[in-house]
């Protein structure tokens, strides 16, 4: 595909995106920006959430990962469904009952200001890194397809990309996000289904031939129970999926801001369960697409790229299929990535404004002004992180995201678990030390697990160890009342 065609495709998509964003966010106040005025219909949010859980990373990386991991990712996705159910029936009623704007306000009510700040800062680091990694992948693809042919630098690519994300979110916040996510979900699902259709047609496969080609492929193996040391081992993947979605969805302001926009907690529960089940089938489509891509390259004698993340972009835009396949790829990638970055930018703005600056205590006019300034600042920081990541990247993007999440979301998961499942009070001022020590211990454990545990490789279940270290650390901080003077002692 020519850079001109790709550019026109992107421009057309953004015209639609900005139109929807402007209408949805028209006259949005602070409540509309933060929680969508709590008037969103649950079925609209459910459809939007399908796309919001699937980023540009999923769109590009999941089809390519079947070569190394087969369909083992579905084991993790099954865990996602269980995690969504736990969020729906444990966290959602709690957050609605407390009428929270930022979910990290729970930590202040439960433990104190130090734990509140700890949760907010760990979210800030987690989301900033995660969003930057996701948007980095888009910048990388756009650099290859558009900016390099026009001899434009990567820095300009990053600046324009982040500016566009900021531009369509600054008016409406969550109100805009929900409707742009609806557009994203529609574009993403249609694009992957039509890509499968066109690739299957090029392989001369009817529906039954398509099913048999995928099911007979070695790449379609889904369940791995044989070797506990294998990173694909079922219980590693499944349990990691359960707790990853609890941490990255249930304890993440980015994802929960949509759920908190529903009219009540029961509507939010319907939304979460519906979107969680739907996500399984959408991920399955991406994995099926991956099998077809590798089948096609083998049949045509095409050399696979050095990185699996590059397979789908290379085939979709390499003139192997009708031009519509490349256009659909671009639309799907842009729809998934920009929406994910926009929601992250909105969540970062909300958390930094409410949790760290406490601007909600300064009146509505001051809050609005501070929010707008923070929104600009978050966009600048995100752009800087993307540029730095480009200099340091040496791993698969999807692997990088889950590894980062294991280190940064673990303390948040441990804090919430201790707060919800115990009634103990702790020495709040020492909580930041526990939250910092836990990822350090996890790093040491991961680096030495094979030597210490007979070849056992720690995968995404590192999140569980991180949360457990935090939970245990909090146990050492429990306040105990003296039986003599009713004072608190260690």
UniProtKB/TrEMBL annotation:
Spans traversing the lipid bilayer: 6-25, 41-61, 73-96, 120-146, 152-170, 182-200, 233-251, 272-296, 320-353, 374-392, 404-421, 458-478
Locations listed in the record: Cell membrane
Keyword entries, A-Z: Cell membrane, Ion transport, Membrane, Sodium, Sodium transport, Transmembrane, Transmembrane helix, Transport
Domain of life: Bacteria
CDD domains, alphabetized: SLC5sbd_NIS-like (cd10326)
Membrane topology category: Multi-pass membrane protein
Family under the similarity heading: Belongs to the sodium:solute symporter (SSF) (TC 2.A.21) family.
PANTHER family hit by this protein: INTEGRAL MEMBRANE TRANSPORT PROTEIN, SODIUM-COUPLED MONOCARBOXYLATE TRANSPORTER
Protein name in the entry: Sodium:solute symporter
Source organism per UniProt: Bacteroides vicugnae
